[in-house]
Design brief:
Serine Threonine Protein Phosphatase 5, Tetratricopeptide repeat; disordered N terminus; mainly alpha
């Protein structure tokens, strides 16, 4: 992952200044958003809060490999359940495959054109709306993503991962209360989704509700002990407490490192100072 102090997309800052920062948008949209509080990354949000967005479609939590693009929102086990998530229009399958391939190459213009064709063909298809909104989000057009994602979950409230993406869309549009509301609904509907708890923690932290963020991150790491990002985030939250907890922060930071998180000199400096 590329790190830096740039200002551009919404992101967060450094722990000493009690702010967070936003990481890079990672290429393929075949993985659902994964967010991380981390210092001095590459897309600024508000002041410099760091998040990490690893795509908008589902894959196993913490997967290090890029999964092949999918044509619909798929639950953790694999193929979407047509009785719950629904299915794309049968006549649009080839167009959808081409759109997914374009999005995997970050050819947003082509992907958006093809997904718009599917939505025009089947405007009441929830997955078509979800996919179009996902690509708008991945392309950085959050204003365009919002209405598509809203329509998708209106048409099919079972699309909980689309709801998570909608929550983060509101976050990127600097509408934190809407983000918290939508993400709270997401964790309520699927309390076993560690990633959703992690994302909710991001939104809570931005409002300064560190205790709530800590609670959500503890749920995330308990649900998915191999979630490096949640461990990293939890380390940062422990350093941000009114009374910092450096030993707890150290524990979760090095768990995150063992799970593949990149080293951070600022965090390590703080941990060394807290010895």
């Amino acid at each position: 992952m590329v790190r830096g102090h740039s200002v551009g997309h919404p992101q967060l800052n450094t722990v000493p200044e009690n702010t967070f920062a936003l990481r890079e948008l990672v290429q393929h949209f075949s993985r659902v958003l994964q967010i991380i509080f981390i210092v001095k990354l590459s897309f600024p949000l508000v002041t410099a809060a760091l998040l990490t967005f690893h795509g908008l479609f589902l894959s196993p939590p913490g997967s290090a490999q890029e999964d092949p693009p999918v044509d619909s929102e798929t639950p953790r086990g694999g193929v979407a359940d047509p009785f719950v998530e629904g299915a794309l229009p049968a006549l649009s399958q080839e167009t959808s495959r081409r759109a997914a391939a374009a999005a995997a190459k970050q050819d947003w213009e082509t992907a958006l054109k093809l997904y718009r064709e599917i939505v025009e063909f089947a405007p009441e298809n929830a997955l078509a709306r979800a996919n179009l909104g996902a690509v708008y989000f991945q392309a950085g057009d959050y204003k365009a993503a919002g209405p598509e994602l809203e329509k998708a979950v209106e048409l099919n409230p079972a699309l909980n991962h689309t709801r998570v993406t909608l929550g983060m869309t509101y976050f990127m549009l600097e509408q934190p209360y809407l983000a918290i509301s939508v993400l709270s609904r997401a964790v309520n509907d699927d309390p076993a989704d560690a990633r959703a708890h992690n994302y909710l923690a991001v939104a809570l932290r931005q409002k300064g509700w560190v205790d709530g963020a800590e609670e959500e991150l503890l749920k995330a790491v308990n649900l998915d002990p191999k979630n490096a990002e949640a461990h990293f985030n939890l380390a940062l939250v422990y350093l941000e407490r009114k009374v910092p907890a450096p030993e707890l922060a150290r524990r979760h930071y090095y768990i995150a490192r063992d799970l593949g998180a990149e080293p951070d000199k600022i965090i390590e400096k703080q941990l060394n100072e807290g010895k």
